[in-house]
Amino acid sequence: TEQATVLTVDFGGTNVRVAMVSLKGNRSFTTQAEKVAIPADMRDHTDGETLFGFVADQVKKYVEKYNVDVEHAQMAFTFSYATKQTSLTSGTLVRWAKINAPDVVGKDPVVFLNEALEKRGVGMKVTALVNDTVSTLVGGAYLNPETKVGMIVGTGCNAAYIERSEAIGKLPSYHAQMDQRVIDSDMHIVNCEWANFGETLSVLPMTTYDRETDQGTTNPGLNVFEKMMSGMYMGEIVRLILLDLWESGKLGEGKPSDVLKTPYKFLSMYMDQIERDESGQLNQISKLFAEVFGMPEPSLVDRRIIRAIVDHVALRSARLCGMAVAALFKLYTSRNPARFEEPFLVASDGSVISKYFQYKENVMETVRGILGDAAKVVKVECMVDASAHGGAVIAAMVAKTD
């Protein structure tokens, strides 16, 4: 029923997205969005002032382009990185993933953004700090009250789910930092940060290529689950496999090009293009190797091997994702058998889950394989802009309770 106009700023792993969301009530809304890619060199190494200055620049451009009424609009800041949230408008960054700005770790990202906005004369401040999975869950629930999980599978991956207060063991230790209204609530949204699953490096069945991918990142040993399945890393895993086979003489002719030897030059987008190729000759692979990698056309046998490698890396990603969804369902239903009959809707967003060839279908096939008949109540639904809509709902609720 919330009605409000909210500026949402989504700071993800690849893009900064600014949108004006008008909540009309009765589960309806309008959205006007602009998206800008974060420069690669800025992601690789930067400082907080530069990074949040870039974010603030995009906000300023948007505000000026659309003549936003900054005096009356709320601002939701959707922040996709592991943060210990201390209030609705503040938190402490635990660590980065996919971005390297060391001076922000252990500090409040909201302070960085507010200061950057002030320096640029933008008369707005953050009124709600939200993780992207939490905002996706809330955005999904705004459209469909059967939503139990908010999930992102794009450049990175994570999920949040609804849980009863008494089932959250660590909750009492945070009471001193929490608003009484939050303490008194029967239900909470839990941000899983499941990208971190498997950080002992002994739980997940990692391959040589997974370990090589992990060691080549700015945070080796961390976010291992994400590195095995998210959009930022799938293409890199494929590249390492191809490079190994080429250099060992088991695939292709001649030496691999410098482009193929360069980390992260094999994009997950190329994998999607290869999987969508229905030609018997797998012409997309020939085109890709000629135009992107500057290499001779692989033989048809080699093209089939490349296609199989791509298929398996993508399928493993979808199966890992499906396993995580099934685990959340088991956790959600474990303490209350009646929940087995409740619809369990997973509101999803992100380029991989929403765009990659048959990815969502493979996730659901995995869920059914794990849960059996119980999977009949589980549904993964892609909801474009759910994160922005959820951020707007949360900001509107904050404004209403202040």
Describe it for me?
Strand 5 and strand 6 (90-93) form a beta hairpin. This protein has 15 helices and 12 strands. Helix content is 43%, strand content 20%. By secondary structure, the chain is α/β, with parallel strands linked by helices. The model has no long low-confidence stretch (mean pLDDT 91).
What is the first-to-last residue Cα distance?
Answer: 17 Å
Work out the number of β strands: 12
**Residue windows where pLDDT falls under 50 for at least 5 positions:** none
With strands numbered from the N-terminus, the spatial order across the biggest sheet is 3-2-1-4-7
What share of residues is helical?
40-55%
Please identify the structural class as seen in this structure: alpha/beta
Question: Secondary-structure element sequence?
Answer: EEEHHEEEHEHEEHEHHHHHHHEHHEH
Q: Output the number of helix runs.
A: 15
What's the rounded overall pLDDT mean?
91
What would the principal axes of the Cα set say about the shape?
Answer: globular
Task: Write a short abstract of this structure.
The chain has helices at 40-44, 48-65, 109-119, 132-143, 180-183, 208-215, 224-229, 231-247, 258-261, 268-275, 283-291, 300-334, 351-355, 359-371, 386-401, and strands at 3-11, 15-25, 28-37, 74-79, 83-87, 90-93, 128-130, 147-153, 157-164, 187-191, 344-349, 378-382. It is α/β, with parallel strands linked by helices.
Strand-helix topology:
Blueprint: E1 3-11, E2 15-25, E3 28-37, H1 40-44, H2 48-65, E4 74-79, E5 83-87, E6 90-93, H3 109-119, E7 128-130, H4 132-143, E8 147-153, E9 157-164, H5 180-183, E10 187-191, H6 208-215, H7 224-229, H8 231-247, H9 258-261, H10 268-275, H11 283-291, H12 300-334, E11 344-349, H13 351-355, H14 359-371, E12 378-382, H15 386-401
Parallel strand pairs: 1-4, 4-7, 8-11, 11-12
Antiparallel strand pairs: 1-2, 2-3, 5-6, 8-9, 9-10
Helix pairs in contact: 2-3, 4-15, 6-8, 8-10, 8-12, 12-14
